[in-house]
């Protein structure tokens, strides 16, 4: 039972990490080529809800991946499993809500002159951005569906670990650590991608248009 769920979990995690890396790569191209204050403000707003999805996803998983040793597991697993059980349902709805906001913003954003450029580098970047938003955020909402599947699968796995823990804590930690180690690696990749994007965003309290 564990093996099938573990593979499904890590496959979904790898997919989510890949989408974050793709967004970071596209963002590097766009922000590296366009310095218009007006454009960057609208572009920053477009990214805000997408990034909120990734940050919410990271926040619900971090307490679990922070458990790295048998001692941590014994001390913290029960409380963090309880926290996850109490909060993951609300985390399921956030990606879909954020997707709706992104869809509305993108309808206007794609009309911008910059998006219609024929400059090869930017043309390719905007094509990738469109594909990302179309497939992962808007029409097919694959990102939301993948996060939904992962969080539900993880809850089942944690429940199984909790059941094993009642009879054999050492075995429970071994099983837990086997799949959490993989989650942690991919979560680190997502975090790095988000940091890369956040470094190019406008200061929250000082919009770029007000500084020019």
How does this structure look, described?
The chain is built from 6 helices and no strands. The longest helix has 40 residues, at 70-109. The protein starts with a helix and ends in a 14-residue tail after the last helix. Helix 1 packs antiparallel against helix 4 (120-138), helix 1 (2-33) packs parallel to helix 6 and helix 5 (142-167) runs antiparallel to helix 6 (169-198). 83% of the residues lie in helices and 0% in strands. It has helices spanning 2-33, 37-65, 70-109, 120-138, 142-167, 169-198.
**Estimated radius of gyration:** 20 Å
Beta fraction of the residues? under 5%
**Helix and strand run:** HHHHHH
What's the shape? elongated
Fraction of residues in helix: over 70%
How would you name the oligomeric state of the polypeptide chains in this document?
Answer: single chain
Class from secondary-structure proportions: mainly alpha
Q: What is the tally of beta strands?
A: 0
Measured between the Cα atoms of the first and last residue, the distance is 59 Å
Count of alpha/pi helices: 6
Q: What do the pLDDT scores average to?
A: 92
Strand count, sense and barrel status of the largest sheet are: none
Low-confidence stretches: 205-212
């Amino acid at each position: 039972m564990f093996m099938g769920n573990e593979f499904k979990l890590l496959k979904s995690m790898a997919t989510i990490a890949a989408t974050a890396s793709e967004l970071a790569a596209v963002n590097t191209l766009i922000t590296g080529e366009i310095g218009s204050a007006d454009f960057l403000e609208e572009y920053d707003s477009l990214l805000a809800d997408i990034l909120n999805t990734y940050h919410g996803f990271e926040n619900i998983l971090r307490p679990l991946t922070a458990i790295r040793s048998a001692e941590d597991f014994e001390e913290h697993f029960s409380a963090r499993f309880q926290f996850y059980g109490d909060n993951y349902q609300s985390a399921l709805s956030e990606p879909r809500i954020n997707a709706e906001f992104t869809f509305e913003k993108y309808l206007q954003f794609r009309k911008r002159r910059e998006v219609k450029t024929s400059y090869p580098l930017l043309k390719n970047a905007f094509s990738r951005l469109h594909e990302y938003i179309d497939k992962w955020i808007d029409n097919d909402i694959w990102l939301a569906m993948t996060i939904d599947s992962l969080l539900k699968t993880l809850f089942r796995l944690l429940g199984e670990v909790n059941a094993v823990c009642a009879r054999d804590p050492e075995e429970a930690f071994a099983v837990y650590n086997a799949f959490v180690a993989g989650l942690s690696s991919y979560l680190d990749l997502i975090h790095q991608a988000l940091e890369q994007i956040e470094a190019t965003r406008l200061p929250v309290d000082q919009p770029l248009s007000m500084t020019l």
